[in-house]
Each structure stands twice: as structure tokens, then as C-alpha cells.
């Protein structure tokens, strides 16, 4: 199996310093299951590619004293010599260990510098399909391309195999990239070639430091990485939740978010929720979705309105849903009241049939947190597939940022925003989406309105045309 890493950061040949492998020569390393080769098919100033090629010895692997008894033929006839698996993770650790640890004697500053990196894996077994690739890589900031392979080209009716050539792109440190690959490759494979014990739990927590606790699929990652050993999985998950709790507490009590500080004096958040609630009530909706519901602030307002008979809040963050459940005190509500509200985990970039059939949907300050490729996916999920009669959507007005003296020019209101649109930009997008999917849209300002720059929040109310 082959792992290649490419960068066009100039000088691109600095990749050799980061990997501690010279671009001008082939290097071979002996491993317990075969050999690993590192080479550079291209090494120029404008682009450089490093490859890690594993040559697994299937006979030696089958004769290993660590193999289990049982299907003896399966020890010799299997996909292990040809696919990226836990063998690749071991090779990353042993052959690229210095880069994995984030150390670089000759280029110490670059080791901590995010670089544009493209990584290709040939071939990756994905037990869960292409969607699972996106679910694991995209929350880490990567774009994903996957090339599936059929079970047999001569018999297309047999369908697709679980094997993919996968390319991911992102601007990350090399250490973070290797760490993500180290953890996730055996997760996709859902198998490991060695015994999983307490040391593997500690390894996961160490390698997952800084990203795993907040990953929306941390339960799935943890369960598969620990080879479905329930005791280890529960222990790891409890420690990850503790880490996330500490991080959330620090954010909430020690350093309020910049966006909240900016908007606090005018209670813009209250005005925003009030405007969205009024639009939903005016639509006559009885069943409502709060998409990207966060910690449940709008859900609380919706629950207080008897007009809404069914209310569903969905968010990609399990932690946010847990907070929402506590804030709304769902376990203490009267049964009739509790039956009106449901919380569910999900992503707005994948079609979800649970979202279909609702009268209205609200997306309050959601779209600006998505990268442009994901935004196009959201358009289809909400406007084409879920297709509620009314959609109420709010987003910041970038023009209004000049009104805040504490917000430096060129910066967004929140560090997680991927974009902030001017009024013409938002209206152009909304008009296009409405026309493509059979909606009419009207625009309303939220918050104090300035003659030149408008209001701090802009709202679009989409009404589905009669069909």
C-alpha cells in the first residue's frame, strides 16, 4: 500500500527536512511485518511529493506467533499486503516518528506551521462507505475525494467493494496530518493486527489530544480504534468527555466568545431569535426544525409557543445537544410537553430523511460556519431534499463589522466563521438558491440599522412556491 504527501509550499523541498528523509535517495526500513520504503517521485522548489510504500511479507505475517488459530487459509489469502491498515500506522510511527512528534531540528518553525498538504492513500479499506470518510475527515478541516473500486470489473452487478483510493487536502501542520492518519486509518479498516490493551487506550488519548474530544464522531472513532473492547471504550469515552467539559467550562467562564462580547450591549441575540420566532409563527407552521440548534436557545422559545406541535433540534455536536438537554430540563418537563420536542444528532451536509415533511425550518447563524463546498451540500439537503414550506435563515452582515471599534478590519466576528457576506452577496446567494429550488425569498434586517452599512444581522425568509 502507498501513502503519498504533496505540498506546494515554497520551497517545497523543505518537506524533506520535516520528514527527516532526504529527497535524493531511496531509504528502506525493516519492520516486523516486512519493509517500508521512503522515496520522492518529485522534489522541486514549487512542488514536492514524499511516498511511504509498505511491502508486507504475507508468509512471515501468517507464521507470526501472534496470529490467532482458526481459519488457517485466511492467514495466507487476505487483503493485508495490499491495503492501508494498522500496519501503515505502525510504519508512520516507526519510520516517520520524528515528524509525527512535531520535531524538526533544521526547520523548527516549520514544524509548527500549517502547510498546504495533499495526501493520497492507495488503497484504503473503508468499512462504512464513502460517507464515513467525509464524516471523519471533514470535521478536521480536510476536503475529501474518494475513488471507489468494484468487487469485480467483470461482474458490475456485484456492486462496489469497501476499497477506495482516497485523497484529502488541508492546511495543517505535518504532525497533525500524520497523527490524524495514524489514528483514523485503522478506524476505517475496523481491524488491528495486534492485541489491544490498556496501552492502546493511552496511545489513543495521547494522539487524540486537542481534536478527538470535540470530534462529532469520537464515539465511533474510539470504539473502532479500541477494537470494540467495551471496557476500554467506556473508559476512554469518559475521559474524553471530561476533557471536553473542562474546555467548555474554560470557554464559558474565563473568556466569553468575541462574538458574544460584540453583540452583548444591544442584545442582538435576543432580537435575532425574536425575529426568527415571529417569522415562523407568521408562516402558520405547526412542525418546526431548528437546524444547527446548538445549546437550545431558540428551542426554548419555540417550546413556549403552543402553535408548534412538533419541534426537532438537530446539531452535529453531541456536546451541544447534551447542554441543550440540560438547559431545557427535558427530564423534568410534563410528558405532554416533552413529547413535543426531540433532539437528534446529525449533519447538514448529508441527506437525512428524518428532516423531511416539516412545515418550517430555522437556520440561525449556521451557514457562515461552513466551507463553500459544504455550503453547496447544505443547499441540497435543506432546499431540495428536506424541502419544508418555510425556511428562515440568518447570517452576519459583513458590512456592519465596521461599526465595532473592537473588531480589527478584515477579521470575522467569530474565529470559526468561514465567511461573512455583505448584503448583496447574501441576496445573490439566496435569490439563486430560491430560484433553483422553487422558493420565493424576502429579506429583513435584524438589529439597529445604519443608513450606510445596514443592520448587524440579515435574514432571509424562503417560502416554497405552490407545486
TrEMBL record:
It holds the Pfam family Methyltransf_12. GO terms for biological process: regulatory ncRNA-mediated gene silencing; RNA methylation. Its EC number is 2.1.1.386. InterPro entries: 3'-RNA_MeTfrase_Hen1_bac, Hen1, Hen1_N, Hen1_N_sf, Methyltransf_12, SAM-dependent_MTases_sf. Residues 1-240 form the Hen1 N-terminal domain. Residues 289-381 form the Methyltransferase type domain. It catalyses: small RNA 3'-end nucleotide + S-adenosyl-L-methionine = small RNA 3'-end 2'-O-methylnucleotide + S-adenosyl-L-homocysteine + H(+). Keywords: Magnesium, Metal-binding, Methyltransferase, RNA-binding, RNA-mediated gene silencing, S-adenosyl-L-methionine, Transferase. It is an enzyme of class 2 (transferase). Its cofactor is Mg(2+). It comes from the Bacteria. One of its GO terms (molecular function) is metal ion binding. PANTHER family: HEN1 (PTHR21404), SMALL RNA 2'-O-METHYLTRANSFERASE (PTHR21404:SF3). Belongs to the methyltransferase superfamily. HEN1 family. NCBIfam families: bacter_Hen1. This is Small RNA 2'-O-methyltransferase.
Amino acid at each position: 500500500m502507498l501513502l503519498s504527501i504533496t505540498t506546494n509550499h515554497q520551497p517545497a523541498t523543505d518537506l524533506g527536512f520535516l520528514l527527516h528523509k532526504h529527497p535524493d535517495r531511496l531509504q528502506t526500513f525493516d519492520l516486523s511485518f516486512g519493509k517500508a520504503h521512503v522515496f520522492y517521485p518529485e522534489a522541486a522548489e514549487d512542488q514536492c511529493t514524499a511516498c511511504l510504500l509498505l511491502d508486507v511479507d504475507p508468509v512471515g505475517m501468517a507464521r507470526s506467533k501472534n496470529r490467532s488459530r482458526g481459519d488457517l487459509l485466511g492467514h495466507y489469502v487476505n487483503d493485508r499486503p495490499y491495503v492501508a491498515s494498522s500496519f501503515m500506522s505502525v510504519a508512520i510511527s516507526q519510520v516517520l516518528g520524528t515528524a509525527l512528534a512535531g520535531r524538526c531540528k533544521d526547520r523548527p518553525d516549520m514544524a509548527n506551521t500549517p502547510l498546504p498538504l495533499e495526501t493520497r492513500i492507495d488503497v484504503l479499506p473503508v468499512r462504512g462507505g464513502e460517507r464515513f470518510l467525509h464524516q471523519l475527515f471533514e470535521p478536521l478541516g480536510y476536503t475529501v475525494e474518494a475513488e471507489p473500486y468494484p468487487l469485480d470489473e467483470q461482474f458490475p452487478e456485484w456492486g462496489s467493494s469497501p476499497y477506495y483510493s482516497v485523497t484529502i487536502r488541508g492546511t495543517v501542520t505535518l504532525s497533525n496530518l500524520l497523527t490524524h492518519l495514524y489514528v483514523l486509518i485503522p478506524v476505517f479498516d475496523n481491524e488491528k493486527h495486534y492485541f489491544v490493551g490498556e496501552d492502546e487506550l493511552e496511545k489513543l488519548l495521547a494522539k487524540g489530544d486537542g481534536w478527538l474530544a470535540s470530534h462529532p464522531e469520537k464515539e465511533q472513532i474510539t470504539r473502532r480504534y479500541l477494537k470494540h473492547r467495551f471496557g476500554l471504550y467506556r473508559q476512554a469515552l469518559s475521559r474524553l468527555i471530561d476533557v471536553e467539559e473542562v474546555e467548555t467550562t474554560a470557554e464559558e467562564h474565563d473568556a466569553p466568545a468575541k462574538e458574544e462580547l460584540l453583540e452583548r450591549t444591544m442584545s442582538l441575540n435576543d432580537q435575532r431569535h425574536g425575529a426568527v420566532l415571529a417569522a415562523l409563527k407568521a408562516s402558520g407552521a405547526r412542525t418546526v426544525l431548528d437546524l444547527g440548534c446548538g445549546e437550545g436557545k431558540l428551542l426554548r422559545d419555540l417550546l413556549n409557543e403552543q402553535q408548534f406541535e412538533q419541534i426537532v433540534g438537530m446539531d452535529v455536536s453531541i456536546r451541544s445537544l447534551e447542554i441543550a438537554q440540560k438547559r431545557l430540563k427535558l427530564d423534568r418537563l410534563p410528558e405532554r410537553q416533552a413529547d413535543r420536542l426531540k433532539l437528534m444528532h446529525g449533519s447538514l451536509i448529508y441527506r437525512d430523511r428524518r428532516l423531511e415533511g416539516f412545515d418550517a425550518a430555522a437556520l440561525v447563524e449556521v451557514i457562515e460556519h461552513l466551507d463553500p463546498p459544504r455550503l453547496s451540500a447544505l443547499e441540497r439537503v435543506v432546499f431540495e431534499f428536506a424541502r419544508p414550506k418555510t425556511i428562515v435563515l440568518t447570517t452576519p452582515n459583513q458590512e456592519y463589522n465596521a461599526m465595532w471599534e473592537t473588531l480589527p478590519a478584515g477579521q470575522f466576528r467569530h474565529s470559526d466563521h468561514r465567511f461573512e457576506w455583505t448584503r448583496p452577496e447574501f441576496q445573490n446567494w439566496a435569490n439563486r438558491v430560491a430560484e433553483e429550488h422553487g422558493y420565493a425569498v424576502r429579506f429583513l434586517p435584524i438589529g439597529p440599522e445604519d443608513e450606510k452599512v445596514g443592520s448587524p444581522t440579515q435574514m432571509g425568509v424562503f417560502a416554497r412556491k405552490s407545486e
